[in-house]
Amino acid sequence: MIEIHDLVKAYDGCRAVDGLSLRVEPGEILGLVGPNGAGKTTTLRCLAGIIPPTSGRIAIAGFDLQQHPIEARQRLAFVPDEPHLFDHLTALDHLILFSRLYGVADGPSRAEAILTDAGLHDQRLSFPGELSRGMKQKLVVACALLHRPEALVLDEPLTGLDPAAMRRMKRAVLDTAAAGASVIVSSHMLQLVEEVCDRVLIVSHGKTVLEGTLDEIRMQIPDVDADADLETLFLKATGGDQ
Amino acid sequence: MQQPKYLVGTLAGVAWIGMFALRPVMRATRRASLAERFEEIAEWLPAIETVVALALLVFLSLWWLWPFGKAMVELTETELHLLLPAPVRRRHIIQYAVLRSQWGILFGCFMISVFSAGGSLMVFAWRFLSVWLFLTVWNLHACGRGLWIARLQELPAATAWGRRAIVLAAVALLWTTLAPGIASIVAGLPPLGGDMAPELRAALDPERLRAVAPLLVVVLTPARWVTGPFFAGLAPDTTLAGRLTTLVWPLLLVVLHNEWVVRSQTQFEEASLEHSRRQAASREAGARFRKIRQSRREATPFRLRPAGHPETAIVWKNLMLAHRANLLVIVGSGVVAVGGVAAVVAVTGLPNWLTAIMMIGGGAGLALTPLMAGHQWRNDLRTDLLRIEVIRTWPIEGWRLFVSQVLPPAIIATLYAAAAGGVLLIAGIAAGTPTATGLVLVRPELAAALGVPYVVLLLLGLAALLPLIAAIASLSATLQNLLALLWPSWIQLGQRRTGSAAHIGQGLLTGLGMMLALALGLLPGAVLVGAWLFIQIRVVDIPLSAWELPVLSLTGVIPLALIIGLLTRVGGVLWDQLDPSAEILGAGVGS
Q1: Does B296 contact A at CB distance below 8 Å?
Q2: Residue at A7 is within a domain
Q3: Most buried among B172, B198, B434, B586, by the most CB within 10 A?
Q4: For residues B183 and B107, is the Cβ–Cβ distance under 8 A?
């Protein structure tokens, strides 16, 4: 489970995240959407422990990120919008590294299997500089899923991927949730969010604008069609249609 | 200057540099000793000026014979894309590139002048001006030569060969003048040994040269013009008018060189674009790793098992940033190689010159490598901060992560220093053989006084140095990583590259701060060892034994280890409290 309560992150007096709260149950996928500068990436970075929040509480699988950071991080996987890999490590090295970092008992065999599943077996000894953007993204996701996280956070996971890789990524997200993980997907690709997410949280200026399933959101916005898609709802909710 | 801590750092650094630069002014006795030293140097100035002019001319003549060069109009790709289509004359673009290169030159002049002016504003100003003239002429000459060589590629072959022939003829003519002159200087040199100074000065004296090799003096004149202001500033009896006169010719050379460069017809555009692209590609992270052969890509410093302390994984990862070779194999083969060579050298000896080179090289490597831990490979936070979105999510306590960042550069530096120690050991053994003359690493009498054979003393000395080296390397790496956490904007993250003037200045400030911290860190250990020796030798009156050396070294290391332990805890707290949003993520240094 992922819980955020009254999260605030301020930079030089400006509140990038302003009292945001959310809760994602095990097996559930939450879509986090909002216009540029809404505070999505800042929220996810706070959630992953990359930047400290100004105030508020974050818990991963019941462990408070401030009080029990090691236990919380042990259960979390974060996939940033840019595939940050180590230039001097091969694809296989990355998985060996993550096996030890997260204490994956069956690390070597799982690493080989996960490389094969991701279609990277032929690139197991390739350095990131020799991989395409899509392959790098696959490797980042492989590293993230290696330790079977209870919480998965993805920031713009489909950026730069070809259609086949997009499909594989969506499958990986759905499978992870099906295995019982709580998943947050932040994306501007509203079709993806609509397709894979159980609930959607629309944020603007660091605050929650709307939250719920698509049907619940439709009911909260006046003057929209009963079959309005997420794009229409998003634009209505954030004032982007004006 | 985004945060007050940078202001504090700047003030501390400026105060430190100021103290260094103004120290001679504040200390009258030192001023007197400096004056004496300058008087001594003044006697040598004409001879030094001759040697420098000669060296310059020899170098330049050989440089022009070297057939390779680039159209060195250095502009970034962005500048080229903006400037080339713009309605700007090409000579103005070249002029812009030439002026742009002045930033580095001006900064270099400033630093040289600050550190050599001894606190005098007048000396500073003259030094700045004279060094600027020299570097500017040099830079323009290099630029002009590069454009000239690139132009040869564009010309028809016959024309290009004609121009090459002219240069060859000019160089040949120059050497027909230089060679007899150099021969006459060599003939006047005194034999080695004894007090050579007066005869050496006389052999290089310009007045004597004017008499015995007048043509050489004429040929050296342009080189003397360039160095003239600098030497005029050093000569104590040169009047202001005399100094100002020396500026005329180098200024004229600057103007002439500048016209030569900006009027070049060379098509520098493609070459510059290619150059800037190549530079960008070489800076691209990971370029060097792609060259590793497939068969070497499975090699690792040690086998990383899935279970165990997670921080070991970071040590494993960061060691591979320097080398993928197995650590045990490196250490084992190093010990076998040094042992084997030492055994052979103990029997055969080495030529004196080689022993001397090995002593200097080994000693320098042993002393400097630990201080520079991680500076070359940057296999610590300086590289990992670029991946902060990954490493901050790892389930590791802050201090453990900090230790795992400090260890790899310390291990690599210790290994390199140990190799240098091996070279020094071989040189020491060679110096102890009967064939060696006049070279001493350790006096044999000292070994006898300490009650061990000469070679055993060398081995014990090396054994005593290794823990100390490892501790110094660890302290150096700890301090550098602390600096990266405290002042990330002042530390070049990622692989080292030529920095801007600002980066060089910031590096200088942090480097000076680090040296001060290292000195302070080493002090408690030195005091402890000093106290031990004092009590043993002066109070208890027990003679020092060679076998004590490793124990003494370990005693000196204990306080150092405590300091490192304390600093790693501080590093851990800094890591836990780090907010990378503004300086690392927001500032874009992490992208």
Answers
A1: no
A2: yes
A3: B586
A4: no
Min Cα separation A84/chain B (Å): 6
The answer to whether the Cβ–Cβ distance between A97 and B289 falls below 8 Å is no
pLDDT score of B557: 93
Predicted TM-score (pTM) of the model is 0.74
Sign of dihedral through CA atoms A191, A197, A202, A207?
negative
- Residues A172, A133 share a domain: no
- A66 in reach of chain B (CB within 8 A): no
Residue A172 and residue A137 share a domain = no
Of chain B residues 382-441, which have a CB less than 8 A from chain A? 386-390, 392-397
The C-alpha atoms of residue B303 and residue A224 are separated, in whole angstroms, by 61
The domain that holds A162 is classified in CATH as: 3.40.50.300
> What residues contact B542, with CB distance under 8 A and at least 6 apart?
B536
| Same domain as B272, residue B315 | no
Beta-bridge mates of residue A2: A24, A60
Contact A101 B390 (CB under 8 A): no
For B306, the closest of A100, A125, A127 (CB atoms) is A100
Widest pairwise Cα distance in chain B:
87
Q: Is residue B275 part of a domain?
A: yes
Domain that holds residue A172: 1-75+150-216
Note whether A16 and A30 are same-domain residues: yes
Q: How far apart are CA A190 and CA B135, in angstroms?
A: 59
Instruction: Enter the ipTM.
Output: 0.94
Separation between Cα atoms, residue B370 and residue B414, nearest integer Å: 6
* B564/chain A closest Cα distance in angstroms: 24
Provide the pLDDT for residue A203: 93
Number of folded domains that form chain B: 2
Residue A95, φ and ψ in degrees, nearest 5: -70, -35
From B106's Cα to the closest Cα of chain A, the distance in A is 36
- Structural domain boundaries enclosing B54: 41-281
Structure tokens at B184: 């006459």
Each residue's pLDDT tens digit, B77-106? 777 778 878 888 888 888 988 888 888 888
A7: three-class secondary structure by DSSP: strand
